[in-house]
Design a protein that fits this description.
Blueprint (H helix, E strand, L loop, with lengths): L1 E6 L2 E6 L9 E11 L1 H8 L14 E8 L12 E4 L14 H4 L19 E5 L4 E2 L14 H14 L7 E5 L6 H10 L3 E6 L2 H9 L4 E4 H11 L3 E6 L4 H10 E9 L14 H7 L2 E4 L5 H12 L7 E6 L3 H9 L6 E6 L3
Parallel strand pairs: 8-9, 8-11, 9-10, 11-12, 12-13, 14-15
Antiparallel strand pairs: 1-2, 3-4, 3-6, 3-15, 4-5, 5-7
Helix pairs in contact: 3-4, 6-7
The structure holds zinc ion (2 copies).
């Protein structure tokens, strides 16, 4: 089978043996795999130099074979979405305090998923969610971009930010942000979408944002129009996005960090006196659980959220897609739709 591999920092398309599904695993023939910004960060070694050999972690495919005891969860021929944001979908024990508390990504036995830029991929069958036909293959980015945005929007309710209140989405036209604008709008929030450039702002308006503002003007506009937002969902992979998000909050606001800037961008700085004065709640939101994925598939089937795909191509286009993604050329996502070429 064809598969993308990172070797010494270079991306190659290799011919590899078809993997065997292990205990409770299903082998999935991949029909579409989204290109997440995390894949790019990993390929470039942006995060503390970590470069796994296999990348790709949001995909749709058909179950082709089952390992021992996987038949309890899926059947051969099922069309499924897989990935759970990469960090969540490889394995979780289901019985530790984190698994039982709804945070399986902290499970000591947890394993991630990496490697869906391949014709076939073995995956923990409990993490698979079956798809209705109305959710097409180009919705593959729901498995990470969509799930991560949904997880962040759900944090608003968990932290008592009520529908109707103003919420800023930073990086609103990007792979994650464009889902968050749709979902937060569908939940009834007043969404202030922040991005850069008129094309991207126009796109953010088309997704249902109440207001779309350029990052450069955001602080002034938000202070003038609303006085400050109740919460900020920060998807930008730049420290500048964190700094802006903290400034946009009203006193006692909720800051939900999602984007992870390159290690070389340095640390988030917080002045303790300002922290005291403004009293924000700071949390991180990563991916989601298999139950979140089921809910999100239902929202997609109901037409409440849709993936915006700017670019499709075969597996051999992946290096070019990384360059384009790095240059900020896409609204929404790029999707590999032919894993065999
Ligand atoms: Zn991702
Ligand atoms: Zn566990």
């Amino acid at each position: 089978m064809k598969a993308a591999r990172l070797e010494d920092g270079e991306l190659h398309i290799r011919d590899l043996p078809t993997p065997e599904p292990g205990e409770e695993e299903a082998l999935v023939r991949i029909t579409a795999s989204g290109v997440c910004h995390s894949d790019l960060h990993l390929a470039r070694g942006d995060w503390a130099g970590i470069r796994p050999p296999a990348i790709g972690h949001e995909a749709i495919g058909i179950v082709e074979a089952l390992g021992p005891r996987a038949e309890q969860f899926v059947a051969v021929g099922d069309r499924v979405i897989l990935g759970l944001g990469g960090t969540g979908g490889g394995y979780w024990c289901g019985a530790c305090e984190y698994c039982l508390g709804g945070q399986p990504r902290h499970c000591a036995q947890g394993k991630g998923i990496m490697g869906t830029f391949a014709e076939e991929f073995p995956v923990y069958a409990k993490s698979l969610v079956k798809l209705p036909q109305s959710v097409g293959d180009l919705e593959a980015p729901l498995a990470c971009g969509g799930l991560t945005a949904y997880g962040a929007v759900k944090k608003l309710l968990k932290h008592h930010i009520l529908p109707g209140r103003p919420v800023a989405v930073i990086g609103a036209a990007g792979g994650l942000g464009h889902y968050a604008v749709q979902l937060a709008s569908a939940f009834g929030y007043q969404v202030i979408g922040v991005d850069v450039g008129e094309d991207r702002l126009e796109f953010v308006r088309s997704l249902g944002a109440t207001l779309a503002v350029d990052a450069e003007d955001a602080l002034e506009v938000v202070q003038r129009e609303i006085g400050g937002v109740d919460a900020c969902l920060q998807f930008s992979a730049r420290i500048a996005g964190f700094n802006l998000g903290l400034k946009l909050l009203r006193k006692g606001g909720l800051f939900v960090a999602v984007g992870i800037p390159a290690t070389s961008e340095g640390n988030l700085q917080l002045n303790p006196f300002e922290f005291f004065l403004r009293d924000p709640t700071l949390i991180y939101s990563a991916v989601g659980t298999v139950q979140d994925m089921r809910e999100l598939v239902e929202l997609a089937a109901a037409g409440k959220v849709k993936t915006h795909v700017s670019r499709t191509g075969p597996l051999s286009d992946l290096p070019a897609i990384f360059d384009e993604l790095e240059a900020g050329k896409y609204l929404g996502r790029a999707v590999i739709t032919d894993l065999a070429h």
